[in-house]
Amino acid sequence: MTDSIVIFRTVSEYRNWRNSLPNNTSIGFVPTMGALHQGHLSLVSQSLKENTFTVISIFVNPSQFAPNEDLNSYPRTFTQDLELLSNLNIEGKSVNAIFAPTVLEMYPSGIDLDINKQQGAFVSVLGVSEQLEGQTRPNFFRGVATVVTKLFNAIQPTVAYFGQKDIQQTIVLKRMVKDLLIPIEIKVLPIIRESNGLALSSRNAYLSDELRENSSLIYKALKEGESAFKNGKSRDEILSIITKILLKNEQFKIDYISLADKETLQEIDDLSNGAILSIAIYVTENERTTRLIDNIIL
Ligand SMILES: Nc1ncnc2c1ncn2[C@@H]1O[C@H](COP(=O)(O)OP(=O)(O)OP(=O)(O)O)[C@@H](O)[C@H]1O
Ligand SMILES: CC(C)(CO)[C@@H](O)C(=O)[O-]
Ligand code: BAL
To answer: Nearest-5° angle of CA 15, CA 20, CA 24?
Structure first.
């Protein structure tokens, strides 16, 4: 029998609990936007293995969505999420707390989706936020860095767990904690995939079974790119192999295929020190377009 999970809606309720814990105890933290899947659970499981206490946040953060994006339709499945977390027991430990605040709790002065109308404090991580995801989603990383800073201030964890699927996010956040002297360790864990190779993602819920199957082509393209890299092919050759594979599916529109430096995320020709091979694709069916991302570290 394990203790049940405590759900906190406010920072002050959470802090009361946090202050009741022994000094110097380790708190593992997994920030999420909910609609939990096995990718999230792998992060939670690692936290349970490595820490005395584990806290998950579930918060769909408005400031990382552009006005034309899916903030309103983003899947919200709290009851199911709670059940998944309640059933998770690793080495006799289970999740202690869920922090699921309201928007007003996280943005006490309010938050406008229109960046030109936003006021107040935000966090920007310059140099690694503008390319790739940031090119298509210009204010995305400002929103992510801002909410993760707020979550870190609220939760005060020892270590925080993120997935490699959002690899640029992990680079931005590592840079953020380094530059802002935030005393929290960031750990990055591997991508969990469906059996066909498709990276698990909450937004896969938007896809039909058929499109989920077809979208496994993204991973196949990454693996072909990896083989080409191992066979000594050049940047242009690798990008051309991947493009040909992806264009086989007429439901796909390529946003980017990138071979970038592992630290700076600048595009590189010289692959002798490896690279991050990443892909973003728009997939469309029944007039609904979903953006999928995936990557492999070479
Ligand atoms: N397949 C996966 N394997 C490992 N970690 C993952 C996977 N998918 C998401 N994560 C990680 O879970 C954390 C929370 O992500 P989030 O709640 O946005 O889920 P998501 O599935 O990435 O959703 P979205 O579809 O919005 O991108 C992030 O650190 C993210 O990288
Ligand atoms: C880190 C995060 C929870 C911030 O809202 C989100 O970007 C995500 O789930 O990857
Ligand atoms: N996992 C990244 C969150 C987002 O796409 O908004």
So the answer is: 95
- Annotate 47-85 with DSSP letters as a single string: HHHH-SEEEEEE---GGGS-TTSSTTTS---HHHHHHHH
Q: Does residue 147 have its Cβ closer than 6 Å to ligand 2?
A: yes
Nearest CA to ligand 3 atom 2: 166
- Tokens read off for 109: 């002065």
Q: Give the CA radius of gyration of the chain.
A: 20
Residue 33 Cβ < 6 Å to ligand 2: yes
Q: Is the ipTM of this complex over 0.90?
A: yes
Could you tell me which residues come within 8 angstroms of residue 252 by beta carbon, excluding any fewer than 6 positions away? 217, 246, 281, 282, 283
Answer positive or negative: Cα dihedral of 65, 67, 70, 76: positive
Whole-number Å distance between alpha carbons of 235 and 229:
8
pLDDT band at 109 (very low <50, low <70, confident <90, very high): very high
Q: Of 13, 287, 266, 295, which is closest to residue 129 (Cα–Cα)?
A: 266
Q: Does the CB atom of residue 291 touch ligand 1 within 6 A?
A: no
Q: Does the C-beta of 293 come closer than 6 Å to ligand 2?
A: no
Phi then psi for residue 258, to 5 deg, are -130, 140
**258 has pLDDT over 70:** yes
Q: Which two tokens stand for residue 190?
A: 């591997």
Distance 192 CA to ligand 3 centre (A): 16
pLDDT in tens, 184-196: 999 999 999 999 9
Length of the chain counted residue by residue: 298
Nearest ligand, measured from the Cα of 35: 1
By most ligand atoms within 8 Å of CB, the mutation choice from 69, 113, 144, 168 for ligand 3 is 144
DSSP class of 4: P
* Catalytically annotated residues: 40
